[in-house]
């Protein structure tokens, strides 16, 4: 199951898997309400789980705070909890400038390649995209696991800046399947006019899901 979510801070919409939460970083009161709802949904209300709820809430607040400090406007998190990895996939979105003056449309692909030399540059329905991915080994607990890291750059419709997406997936899974999943998510991005974006509700009200 998938759902389309609107991101007011960027005037875009994106299709996310149904098991993902969408947290608007730039609206702190709203992000706090969404985090509280996520913790209840994922951990439950049992008094014996109070310590777990506190830990998960602190982890989510830390993720959002770090994203906010880095200038991000949105965080998307997988809701499948695994041992030692409360949220095994995360995606952070922000805007970054071009290197130097924004290029003309016919020079965008070359400029993206200059900015991310290891990237594959290709065209999706959402527009031209530069994407890199790699697998590193991390040790969140006692065991070492693979972490597939992806980075995307997409020119905005005006061409004056870039939508920057970083995804992190520390799970044991075929990395090419992970890349295909995130390519599909990125391909679902649609740019909205600001006046139209006001007609869309944030996904899920109190918990960030529709």
Topology of helices and strands:
Blueprint: E1 2-7, E2 12-17, E3 20-24, H1 28-43, H2 50-69, E4 74-78, E5 90-96, H3 108-115, E6 120-124, E7 127-138, E8 145-155, E9 162-169, H4 175-187, E10 190-191, H5 194-197
Antiparallel strand pairs: 1-2, 2-10, 3-4, 4-5, 5-9, 6-7, 7-8, 8-9
Helix pairs in contact: 1-2
Q: Quick one: overall form?
A: globular
Please report the first level of CATH classification, the CATH class.
Mainly Beta
Largest sheet: 7 strands, antiparallel
Instruction: Tell how many strands the DSSP assignment holds.
Output: 10
CATH topology (fold) name = Jelly Rolls
As for the number of domains, it is 1
Helicity range of the residues? 25-40%
N-end to C-end Cα span = 11 Å
In sequence order, what are the helices and strands, one letter per element? EEEHHEEHEEEEHEH
Q: What class do helices, strands and sheet pairing give?
A: alpha+beta
Number of helices, where a helix is a run of at least 4 consecutive DSSP H or I residues: 5
Mean pLDDT: 81
């Amino acid at each position: 199951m998938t759902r389309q979510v609107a991101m007011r801070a960027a005037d875009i919409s994106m299709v996310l898997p149904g098991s993902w939460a969408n947290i608007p970083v730039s609206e702190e009161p709203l992000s706090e309400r969404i985090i509280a709802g996520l913790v209840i949904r994922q951990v439950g209300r049992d008094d014996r789980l109070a310590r777990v709820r506190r830990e998960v809430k602190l982890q989510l607040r830390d993720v959002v705070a770090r994203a906010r400090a880095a200038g991000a406007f949105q965080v998307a998190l997988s809701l499948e909890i695994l041992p030692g990895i409360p949220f095994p996939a995360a995606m952070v979105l922000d805007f970054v400038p071009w290197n130097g003056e924004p290029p003309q449309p016919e020079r965008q692909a070359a400029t993206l390649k200059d900015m991310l030399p290891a990237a594959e540059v290709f065209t999706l329905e959402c527009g031209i995209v530069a994407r890199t991915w790699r697998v590193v080994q991390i040790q969140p607990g006692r065991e070492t696991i693979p972490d597939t890291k992806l980075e995307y750059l997409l020119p905005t419709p005006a061409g004056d800046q870039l939508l920057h997406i970083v995804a992190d997936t520390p799970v044991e899974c075929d990395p090419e399947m992970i890349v295909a999943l995130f390519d599909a998510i990125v391909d679902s991005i649609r740019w909205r006019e600001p006046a139209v974006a006001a007609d869309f509700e944030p996904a899920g009200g109190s918990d960030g899901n529709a």
